Amino acid sequence: MDGLLWWKQLYVYVLERKLCMGVMQEVHDMSMAKHHEEKTITWVILSDMFYWPKMKEDIEVHYICICVKCQSTKLVCKKKFRLYKPLPILKNPFENISMDFVTCFPKRQGKDAILVVVDRFSKLANLHQIKSQW
User: Fold this and answer.
1) Number of Cβ within a 10 Å radius of residue 77
2) How far apart are CA 104 and CA 113, in angstroms?
3) Residue 111 DSSP one-character state
4) Cα 86 to Cα 88: distance, rounded to the nearest angstrom
5) pLDDT tens-digit readout, 35-62
6) How far apart are CA 86 and CA 27, in angstroms?
């Protein structure tokens, strides 16, 4: 075949740049590579069968970094992790409360939700039946 050269009957040495891109696309898009975020998977699969100069750089920089599917599924952490800052210790009840609604109950006397109010200090919970606006 034009542009291919066998080396030690194990690898195919790819001579033409156009063939390099075609080989990368075929291997990267097949089910074994599955557009993984990890760049080395495509390289590991390709290096078992093919070789060309600057192969790893071509795969990581010139193909995977421009692959739309890989870039759209890439996990990007935008916020840096910070040290945990605990809530202040309370001294008296009802200084700090939490509220939540539990909804989608069958209507009973026109009311179909529960308002839950919890005191953080004493863990005392008050439940109130309410009519939801939804």
Assistant:
1) 6
2) 6
3) B
4) 6
5) 655 556 777 777 777 777 888 888 777 7
6) 49
